[in-house]
Amino acid sequence: MRKRNASALGAIALTVLLAGCGTNSTTTTTSPSPAATAGSTTAATTVPAAKKVTITAQGFKPDQKEKNDQLDQRITRFKAKFPTVDFKKDDWQYNPLEIGIKMASNSAPTEYTTYATEGKVLVDKKWVADITDSINSWEHAKDMNDLLSKPFVVNGKTYGVPIDGYVMTITLNKKLFKEKGVDLPPMDWTWDDLLTAARKINDPAKGIAGFIPMGKGPEAGWNWTNFLYAAGGDVQKLDNGKVVGLFNSEAGLKALEFYKKLKDENLIPQNWALGYGDALNAFSQGRGAMVMCGSGNAADTAINEGGISKEDLVVYPMPSITKGGKHTGVLGGNYRVINPKSDKDQQQVAFKWITDEYFTDDFLNSTKKEIEDRKGKNRVYIPQPINYWKDSSDFGKKYTDLLAKYDNVFKYDPQLISLWDGKPEAQYEAQKYYTELANVIQKVFTTKDVDLKKTLEEASNKVQTEVFDKVKVE
Hints:
Elements: H1 11-15, E1 53-58, H2 65-81, E2 85-90, H3 99-104, E3 111-115, H4 119-124, H5 132-137, H6 146-149, E4 153-154, E5 157-158, E6 161-173, H7 174-179, H8 191-201, H9 218-230, E7 236-239, E8 242-245, H10 250-264, H11 276-284, E9 290-294, H12 297-304, E10 313-317, E11 327-338, H13 344-355, H14 361-376, H15 394-404, H16 414-419, E12 420-424, H17 430-446, H18 452-466
Protein name: ABC transporter substrate-binding protein
Keywords: Signal
Pfam families: SBP_bac_1
C-alpha cells in the first residue's frame, strides 16, 4: 500500500508538477506528492551543449490531459535552459512484471518512476543506472533525506532519486486519553505499551475501541506487516530467480499472537472488518483511541472531516517489540531512476532533468498558497512528515519556517522523525500477499481457538504455490 497524506496534494501537485509521478500497485490511487513537485534552486549546467541529445521522459496516458499539459510546460522550461535537449514521451508506467521485457527489447524510457520496493532487484538485474557520480557532484546531495534515499542505495552506490514517501505511523486521540485520565505512552513505546494504553482507553459499552486495525481487504495485511517487520521478520526474498516467502517465521507468529491479544481482550471495534477509509472514519468519529496509517492521513481525516482539534492528535512511530528496539514500519514511496542502456550523454541529461526542479522556491510558494487557501476554508494543512530533503538543510529550514508562520498547520513531535525506521514493502505481488494475510487476520479475529502456527503455515504454502512460484523474474 502506498497511501499518502492527502492534505497537501491536489492543488500543489498540479501547480508545480514533477513529471512522471509513479502509479501504485495498490487498491487505492495515490496522488502525486507535494515533495514530487519541488525543484532545484541552482541548475547545474553540465549537460552536453555542443550536440543534440534526445531523451525519452516518462509521461502519462492520453486521458490524463492535465498531467500531460503540466509535463509539456516543464519540458518547455527545461528546453529554455538547455535548447540542445530534445524530448520524446512514453506513457508506460512501471510494472515489476514488465520491466524485464522492456529492458530486453530496449524499449524502456530513458528515465522512469518506480517504487521503494524495487531498489535491490533493479540493481541486481542491472536495470537501473548507477548515478553515484552524478549525485556526489550535485550541490544538493548532502540535503537529501537519508531514510527516504535508503531503498535505492545499494552496496554504497546510489541508483535512484526519491520523489515522495511515507513510513507507517499510529495516530493517537489525546482527548480520549485525557477523558479517561490516562497518560500518553512514551513515544519510544513498545507493543506492551500499546496494549496497556488500549486496555485503559477501551470502552466497548460506549463504542470506543482501544485500537483500530484495518481488518478487511489488502490493507489488513498491509497493517499487519508492520508488526511482522517490528518483530524482525520479512515477507520474501529472491533466491536464484525464485521468490521465496519468509513470513511463516517466529516473527510472523509473534505478530499474529499480538493480533490475537487485541481480539481476545476485546480491544478492537466490535465491527472489526474495516477497510482503509472505514478505519480512518471510525477514528475521526472518536470510536477508537489509536489507528495505524501512512504519514498524516489519519490526522487529515480526523481534523478536516471529523472536526477533531489538531491539538488533540499526536502521531507516533510504530512501537518496537521490546524497549530500545527499532520502530520499524512499512516504507513506501516513488523514485526516479535512469535506464542503464541509454548512453552517457543521455544519462547525464536524464539526471539533470530529474533533479532540475528540486529545491526551488516554487514548492514553498505553492505550499504557502495551499495553507492560506485552507485557512480561508477553516481547514488545517497536514504536511508530509517525511520529504526528499533533510529537515536540517537550508531548504528544510525554509520549509519549517514557512509552516511556523501559520496557526492552521498540524505539527509532528520531533521525536517521531528521530525514532522511526522504514523497511520497504515486498517487491513481488505484495497485493496478493496482503490479501491472503487479510484472510489470516479475519480467521484470528473470528476463531476462538485458532491454531496460529498452522494458520500461518497454510497461508504461507498457499501464497508460495499460488502466487510467488508463478512470478517470473526475468
